[in-house]
Design brief:
Helix content: 40-55%
Shape: globular
Number of helices: 8
Bound molecules: guanosine-5'-monophosphate
Number of strands: 9
CATH architecture of one domain: 3-Layer(aba) Sandwich
Mean pLDDT: 94
CATH superfamily of one domain: P-loop containing nucleotide triphosphate hydrolases
Distance between the termini: 25 Å
Strand content: 15-25%
Radius of gyration: 20 Å
Structural class: alpha/beta
Low-confidence stretches: none
């Protein structure tokens, strides 16, 4: 029997680690399994990004009003911009038993852990710091200054990696997608996520008990 609530799955990783690509391929490979939480942000859209698809793009005032109205599950300031997870959608999906993926940075991830202690936290890293720098530069969407800032942030974030449940070393996207899917699917079988099924069989077995409980 499947646990009734869906899983809150947090995916974090250094900027340029490839977590966006992993998430994209995960949805393409297993389209019926997962739902994506779309964040709000005050950063400017990158070329090709659409409001309501990659992010809900907000002004600082709009974002601060969302904070005041308690519409966000978590939020963080990253590289001088706000990023946050709208609460209502995530709660709805989880209550419907759906697995929802939050692709967020570490400060937000740790807030999610406080709110949903049962959340599954995955951290994505490239095989080396060198590979990380190459990917960030190769992406060509950020200036050299921004690349340097993001690498400095990664150095800081690396000290929080051990707060996560699982580490994905992103060598090839194909392998990483399989690993992430495998981890999530296995999580559903944990005894703590199946307390109802355990109680049910315990109740059913009571008729066979020989006075020892
Ligand atoms: P980017 O500007 O590259 O899209 O995202 C920058 C960082 O913000 C990434 O690490 C991304 O995962 C994170 N991020 C995106 N949405 C959220 C969110 O809703 N909350 C938090 N805390 N971080 C987010």
């Amino acid at each position: 029997m499947r646990h009734k609530r869906g899983l809150v799955i947090v995916m974090s990783g250094f900027s340029g680690a490839g977590k966006g690509t992993i998430v994209k391929h995960l949805f393409e490979t297993y389209p019926d399994n997962y739902f994506l939480s779309i964040s709000a942000t005050t950063r400017n859209p990158r070329p090709g990004e659409q409001d309501g698809r990659e992010y809900f793009f907000k002004t600082k005032e709009e974002f601060e009003s969302m904070i005041e109205q308690k519409e966000l599950l978590e939020y963080a300031n990253f590289n001088d911009n706000y990023y946050g997870t709208p609460k209502a959608y995530v709660e709805k999906l989880v209550n419907e038993g759906k697995d929802v993926i939050l692709e967020i940075e570490v400060q937000g991830a740790l807030q999610v852990r406080e709110i949903f202690p049962e959340a599954l936290l995955l951290f994505v890293t490239p095989p080396s710091a060198d590979a990380l720098e190459k990917r960030l530069v190769g992406r060509g969407t950020e200036t050299a200054d921004v690349v340097a800032q993001r690498l400095a942030i990664s150095a800081r974030e690396s000290h929080l990696m051990n707060k996560y449940d699982y580490l994905i070393v992103n060598d090839t996207v194909e392998d990483s997608v399989k690993e992430v899917h495998g981890i999530i699917q296995s999580e559903h079988f944990r005894t703590v996520r199946n307390e109802e099924a355990i109680k049910k069989i315990q109740e059913e077995l009571k008729v066979f008990a020989k006075g020892d409980n």
